[in-house]
Amino acid sequence: MEDTISFKEIINVIKRRVNLIILMTLTATLASGIISYLFLSPMYESSTQILVNHSTNSNQAQANDKKSKKDENEANLIDPNQVRTNIELINTYTVLIKSPAIIEKVIDDLSLDASFLDVNDQVTVNTTQNSQVVEIVVQDKDPKAAADIANHIAEVFKQEVGALMSVDNINILAAASEQEPYGALSPDIIRNVMIGFALGLFCAIGTAFLLEYLDPTVRNERDIVYELGIPVIGNIPEIKVSHKRIKNHQTESSGVRIGGRTLDS
Hints:
Blueprint: H1 7-16, H2 18-39, E1 44-52, H3 58-65, H4 69-75, H5 80-97, H6 100-110, H7 116-122, E2 123-127, E3 133-140, H8 143-165, E4 170-174, H9 189-214, H10 221-228, H11 243-253, E5 255-258, E6 261-264
Antiparallel strand pairs: 1-3, 1-4, 2-3, 5-6
């Protein structure tokens, strides 16, 4: 027995359940908008950039003091090998920025009511391939707190990296500002509403077909064949009669015609 459904039947199912589909879709859309606007806390993002440049240590500084001005100028020229080394160091720096040595000092200096893991989850370190620039991004419910944490991480890292690695090659390019974010980063109300609409529509259509499958009503000969497993040998088409015709028929049938005249019964 063939168990298929045609496109026309799909359209008929949607038409029969259109009120349910509209109601469920609107409910899901409104619910996602209300939850996003009233119950989800807004998150703000702020970022600062640091530059990893030509590195020097204390021994190199002492040696440079003994050189002539010409030698110093030659030493200050950009060395491609040094640039390559700085780029390779960035991978190490991205790990150090989020290490307890930096994050815990930031927490103490700013008196943050948060643990190392909480602040660590707020911080993201972005790098660009073959670039000496490192971006420190911080997310927080308070835009001012996000900017303060980002700036202080850059300052602490610049101070601590010299003690940890005996180098002084960090410059802060751009400090974070609380005016930087143009509105909340999240929640994205428009995106959430669109997702709610799509999920609501999908669930509504699925529910409509489920109810149609569970509905035992026989609507056509196909349902008879499917339910009873017997062939249909004939059908009686629906006869549409106007109300006026029925009324005239009832009037005529209420009397008896004798000699061309109608007598009431």
